[in-house]
Amino acid sequence: MPSVEIYTTPYCGFCVAAKRLLSRKGVTFSEVDLSRTPDRRPEMLRRAGGRHTVPQIFVGDTHVGGCDELYALDRAGKLDALLKG
């Protein structure tokens, strides 16, 4: 299973929803809280192609995007395959 990384901030409802979906699927992920580590924001911007909103979700080297994209992949039946690698 590829590693899953999610950039978040506190009180972000979309971040909570994305983490909830991943947890429901039994996915272990690492969370980068940008409020605690603001020096990692440029890293997120670079990896996400300039997207500055949170969450930004990565599965392995694949940039999924945000919460809406994560749920769209799940609805399309493509998320499980991506998570399996």
Automatic annotation (TrEMBL):
The keyword Iron does not apply. GO terms for molecular function: glutathione disulfide oxidoreductase activity. Keywords: Cytoplasm, Electron transport, Redox-active center, Transport. CDD domains: GRX_GRXb_1_3_like. GO terms for biological process: cell redox homeostasis; cellular response to oxidative stress. Residues 4-64 form the Glutaredoxin domain. Pfam families: Glutaredoxin. The keyword Electron transport applies. GO terms for cellular component: cytoplasm. Belongs to the glutaredoxin family. Has a glutathione-disulfide oxidoreductase activity in the presence of NADPH and glutathione reductase. Reduces low molecular weight disulfides and proteins. This is Glutaredoxin. The lineage of its organism: Bacteria, Pseudomonadati, Pseudomonadota, Alphaproteobacteria, Rhodobacterales.
